[in-house]
Write a structure and sequence with these properties.
This protein has about 130 residues and is mainly alpha-helical. It has one domain. Helix 2 packs across helix 4 and helix 2 runs parallel beside helix 6. It is globular.
Length: about 130
């Protein structure tokens, strides 16, 4: 759970630097985190469905109501984890005293996570496409 808070923290700080506090960086970070987590979960589900029964992939990933429910569940979960009752302030307080070296390492790790998330989201479907 600490890693999810750290991802949110880094995204919150970046959103705050880019847009300022007036633009609700807590929601920007929440939506970005939700999007990244949704991509991670989608890849896992895609691989599991492929292993179990690859004929289910098209009905699940083309069914808009299923995708909407999936997005709402992730968004609400992240809202209650990060934004509700101003929990993001506790998250910021938890990580804001990290050393400069730790900040640099954390930034590298988060950028690597974001890159790998997008890379895997492209590679897995393309790799599995040849089986359909």
């Amino acid at each position: 759970m600490r890693i999810t808070r750290y991802i949110y923290y880094k995204l919150y700080i970046w959103a705050q630097k880019i847009s300022g506090k007036e633009s609700s960086p807590e929601y920007t970070a929440m939506f970005t985190t939700s999007f990244l987590f949704a991509m991670n979960i989608a890849v896992l589900v895609l691989v599991l469905i492929f292993i179990i029964n690859k004929e289910l992939i098209n009905p699940i990933f083309t069914n808009k109501p299923v995708l909407y429910v999936f997005a709402i569940i992730i968004g609400l979960t992240n809202y209650f984890l990060f934004v509700y009752d101003k929990r993001y302030l506790d998250i910021v307080k938890e990580f804001q005293k990290e050393s400069e070296q730790r900040k640099k390492q954390g930034t590298i790790y988060i950028w690597l996570y974001i890159f790998l998330t997008f890379f895997i989201m492209v590679i897995v479907p393309v790799s599995l496409r040849k089986y359909f």
